[in-house]
Amino acid sequence: MKVVKLLVVVLAVALSFAACGGKSKAKLTLEDAKGPGRDRELYRQSVDAIRKGRFDEGRILLNTMINTYPESPLIKIAKLSIADSYYLQGGSKSLAQAEVEYRDWIQFFPDDKLACDTMLKMAEIHLKQVQAADRDTTHAKLAERQLKEMLRRCGSNAEAKEKAEQLMTDVQEILAMHELKVARFYFDIRESSQAAQMRTEEILNKYPNFSRFDEALFLHARAMENQEDTETASQDLARLVSSHPHSEYVDRARETLKKWGKPVPESDPAKVAEGGPEGKGLPSRVFGFMFGPHIDTSNKGVIIDRDQKTDDIVARAQELGGAKSVGPITPGATTTNNNPDTRARRATQAGQDVEVKPGAPAGDQKPQSTSSKDKKDKDKDKKKKDSGTPGLRNP
């Protein structure tokens, strides 16, 4: 029994020492974080951790910097770097959190020069999760919406506009192909011409650059023909002959127009000179079916690029944040202000500097503080005066 009690006492003492040691370590870390100039050093350490895949550690360092130095010029860059860390980490949960962080950053800094790049990154988050055309199109539609918003707000930025338009072409190709596959299903399998008409009209109205626009035109014409609207069908076929001379449906369109007694238009010479579209080979189609469409998205964040060196990223962050470039920061170093004090001052008899107020001679200025000696003399005089007052003397 005594042995058990002794073990309990030893264990309690060990735990108390461990707790004291952990507390001292945490206190030391906090004091180091609050040292002058540590905001840039903390940011450098966080970038280095994120580059090496230690994302949680990097975010802890960034949050420490943000909470400890709320007036640092690197605050907005640090917040954007947190979003980058989730983007670089990847995975559906991290990408969703990255979008939240990017969106919050834009709300705080809507007019910043990095806002357009941030909006593009939000679109790329959804483009990374886009599936094949015959699958769910939620992420494709969200990416399209984000790119439209970016083009609306950043249309004057030539570089950002070019990137957004290229990505818009890729995502709209997927959305249009989805509508075409659904239209084929309704027309061939369900034999519903009205449903096929609605799906093809979605393509004709929204996706003019679709690579299989000619097929959408021909399918829409057949759907209208089955509904006995040969006038609309004739317009579709005439447009097909004129604007898509290399289409595989051109000959059938011409024959149908002749059968209905409609005029057959001439093909546009400019379209004829362009040449036919290049079809995808079997390996490419199989790859797209198995792994989904390939969209060229960036593997780097707005600020952090894991292929760059840490010092290069920090230097760019300081430039974007407006912070002056300084030498290596030593933890615990002190800062001084070398700016001279140009206020007018004069020396008093007590050896104190007193500020001279403008508009009055220097000799008329009264010192703002009195010496302790003068104060004691005044107290003595007051006591003497009180002792000579009638009624206050001792009998």
| Total strands | 2
Write the element-wise H/E pattern from the N-terminal end onward.
Answer: HHHHHHHHHHHHHHHEEH
Low-confidence stretches: 17-28, 279-291, 326-371, 389-395
What structural class results from the helix and strand content? mainly alpha
Number of contiguous helices: 16
Rg result: 38 Å
- Beta-strand proportion: under 5%
Strand order of the largest sheet: 1-2
What does the oligomeric state look like here?
single chain
Assign a percent range to the helix content.
55-70%
Q: What is the arithmetic mean of pLDDT?
A: 79
For the termini, the CA-CA separation is 81 Å
Give an overview in words:
This protein has 395 residues and is mainly alpha-helical. It is 63% helix and 2% strand. It is built from 16 helices and two strands. It has a two-stranded antiparallel sheet with strand order 1-2. Helix 2 (38-51) runs antiparallel to helix 3 (55-68), helix 8 runs parallel beside helix 10 (213-226) and helix 10 packs antiparallel against helix 11. The longest helix is centred in the first third of the chain and has 32 residues, at 2-33. The chain is elongated. Mean pLDDT is 79; it is low at 17-28, 279-291, 326-371 and 389-395.
